[in-house]
Design goal:
- This protein is globular.
- The termini are far apart.
- Helix 6 packs parallel to helix 10 and helix 7 crosses helix 9.
- The protein has one domain: Hypothetical protein af1432 (Orthogonal Bundle), CATH 1.10.3210.50.
- The chain is an all-alpha fold and about 220 residues long.
- The structure holds adenosine-5'-diphosphate (ADP) and nickel (II) ion.
- Adenosine-5'-diphosphate (ADP) binds next to helix 7 and helix 9.
Length: about 220
């Protein structure tokens, strides 16, 4: 099957799989990540565009956050789909590794798999966690989980392991300090770093304004 057709089929499959998804992890999140991944690939000549597109499109299929913590489901669903599409086995293996290794989960995990394509998709996914869209997604997720917006008595925890990160019920504003403000220093590619710096600054301005309003000084 030709690669363009497989990408088209993947888009249709992902849209259908994500019907009814939480607003920050829906098809439009995937579409933004896919577009940013293509943009970054243009400045990373070593990366294979087809693998990057498949990885970006499939990276949040059956996200463990929404499937009782099961981290094996997403890679399995993606593999079966790609087998059905008759994608080359080495590309399927690579996409599966990308899906297994992309997530932040507190940032303290030792990831063993590395590739140019994973670096790109991880940057594209992280960019969507930053800036105006990052802010919108974060409060949507907090609302979805019925979390407080902010509670000055509950301080951010910067040393959460994977389990604590996954089980955290802290106010949504803490997520900025526990994850989002750390991302700009974790970017892999030059293009990713440049875009992240700009989006990071926007979040810093937002947080300053938030605290000023909270304290009645603006
Ligand atoms: P993970 O951090 O587990 O890899 P994702 O990368 O899927 O999770 O997170 C994507 C987005 O979902 C985050 O950038 C944020 O907007 C939202 N999100 C995830 N966890 C939280 C949380 N604890 N509080 C608020 N938003 C969250
Ligand atoms: Ni994602």
């Amino acid at each position: 099957m030709n690669q363009n057709l497989i990408v088209t089929n993947t888009i249709a499959f992902v849209k259908q799989q994500l019907t009814g998804a939480e607003g920050g992890h829906d098809w439009f999140h995937i579409e933004r990540v896919w577009k940013n991944a293509k943009l970054i690939t243009a400045t990373e000549p070593g990366a294979d565009l087809f693998t990057t597109e498949l990885g970006a499109l499939l990276h949040d299929i059956a996200d463990s956050k929404f499937h009782a913590g099961d981290e094996t489901l997403g890679p399995r669903v993606a593999r079966q789909f790609l087998v059905d599409q008759q994608v080359l086995p080495e590309i399927i293996d690579h996409v599966e590794q990308i899906i297994r290794n992309i997530s932040f989960k507190g940032g303290h995990e030792q990831h063993l798999f590395k590739s140019a394509e994973l670096d790109i998709i991880q940057d594209a996914d992280r960019l969507d966690a930053l800036g105006a869209i990052g802010i919108a997604r974060t409060f949507n997720y907090g609302g979805f989980k019925n979390r407080a917006i902010y509670d000055p008595a509950i301080a951010p925890d910067l040393n959460m392991g994977k389990a604590a990160y996954k089980n955290s019920t802290a106010p949504t504003l803490n997520h900025f300090y526990e994850k989002l403000l750390l991302l700009k220093d974790l970017m892999n590619t030059a293009t990713g770093k440049k875009l992240a710096a700009q989006r990071h600054e926007f979040m810093v301005v937002f947080l300053d304004q938030f605290h000023a309003e909270w304290n009645g000084s603006k």
